[in-house]
Amino acid sequence: GTLGAGTTLSNDNQPFVLEVSPAAALGDTMTVEFRLAGDPMLGEWADTISFVCGLPDGAAMADLNGSGGTLTLTNYGHLGVANASVLAAGGQGWTHALTHENCLYESSLMLISSDGGFADASRGSALECAPVDPVTVVTKTNGDVVGVASFDDRRSGSPLGVRVDQTVSMYGDAQVGHYAVIEFDIVNESGTLIPGMQIGYLVDFDIMSPNFDDEISVALPGNSGFYNWSVGSKDVAGVVSLGAPFETIHYYSNHENGKLDLSTNQKMDALLGPSNEPITEPGDVFAIVCSAPIDLKPSQTASFALVMVAAESETELSAAIGDAQRNWQQVTDVDDEDGDAGLVPRSYLRQNYPNPFNPETVIGYALGQAGPVRLDVYNLLGQHVRTLVNGWNPAGQNTVVWDGRDTDGTKLASGVYLYRLKTDNITETRKMVLMR
Question: pLDDT at residue 278 above 50?
Fold first, then answer.
């Protein structure tokens, strides 16, 4: 017989087979309750199973085992995929090394463009991202564990025509907390301009102690991120941008929306609309963070980086964010004899951290090759404030600290300042906020 939604079938014969129609949507999670009744020895017994309707061809996953815990990386736009998550594909989730508990229900990518393109790996649209390459994991000589996966959006109903190269890093020398750095390189393979592309990331933590139903959301300054705080356990888990601040952060309560009831229109509103207020009523909460829109030219690459952090207190969370930022900016010396592949950075300017800041902030930049570098600070009137770097720099990652003073050593007033990196092949400018 046919078992429709909310219907019941009886079977007096054993064994039996449950078959899913080919018309079932790829990636949909189905839940079936089995109930045994009428046996005088066993009485009445019931159990429930949930399963995903297939995975795409070439689907793969791998566990990244770092010093802080384990995170499962897939090549179809999801992290975690534990059996208790939105996409129950048999992964480990994001488990803490001390508690061995999974604190991640879902972590997934969305892309949108101003000409109607929309690719979605989240919630009920779980598998619009199609695998391109298998998941590769490298454990480096210093204990860093790096996973790389590639997928594209050709399964989407309105594809942008992009390939996504995702890198997840678990650092071997993590000093505090429990964190993973997540980086996306989105490559325009459409052959045409992708106008107004924005990158969205849905993150739904389940802080399990004592339960995941007593969380509130807390916004970090300057749209730099957010964290969920468990009222009962005081544990925290959050997301922080490692580049420019997020353009918007949209908060949701699963009590209001249902765990999976997030429509395509709601997702698009989160990417295109303004931020809303954090959820302050304890419950099961999640958020979507979104980048600023960019016009992506053919063959051009857009980068998006963030860190997921879990900790046992807000103080530890803050320390872990700083630790993650330092690790992310660091260039690792590679021992080729151990078979590690070297990292060849491209030239770019990083967002300062912390931001907003007082009294000082760290500005990072990467050079694809050694050469002359100038890094200057300006006010919003375009007036030069201070030169931080002016000279030859080695290839790789570099950092400099600005103490919020001008060339004469005078403390500057609160406000927005610009910092500009100029090399032989790039000129790039970002904003930072000084708060006295």
Answer: yes
The pLDDT tens digits for 102-153 are 888 889 999 999 898 999 988 756 667 889 988 999 887 777 888 999 999 9
pLDDT for 376 equals: 96
In this prediction, residue 316 has a pLDDT band, given cuts at 50, 70 and 90, of confident
pLDDT at 21: 62
For the chain, percent of residues with pLDDT exceeding 70: 77
Q: Quick one: three-class SS letters along the chain?
A: CCCCCCCCCCCCCCCCCCCCCCCCCCCCEEEEEEEEEEECCCEEEEEEEEEECCCCCCCCEEEEEECCEEEEEECCCEECCECCCCCCCCECCEEECCCCCECEEEEEEEEECCCCCEEECCHHHCCCCEEEEEEEEEECCCCCEEEEEEEECCCCCECCCEEEEEEEEECCCCCCCEEEEEEEEEEECCCCCEEEEEEEEEEEECCCCCCCCCEEEEECHHHCEEEEEECCCCCEEEEEECCCCCCEEEEEEHHHHCCCCCCHHHHHHHHHCCCCCCCCCCECEEEEEECCCEEECCCCEEEEEEEEEEECCHHHHHHHHHHHHHHHHCCCCCCHHHCCCCCCCCCEECCCECCCECCCEEEEEEECCCEEEEEEEEECCCCEEEEEEEEEECCEEEEEEECCECCCCCECCCEEEEEEEECCCCEEEEEEEECC
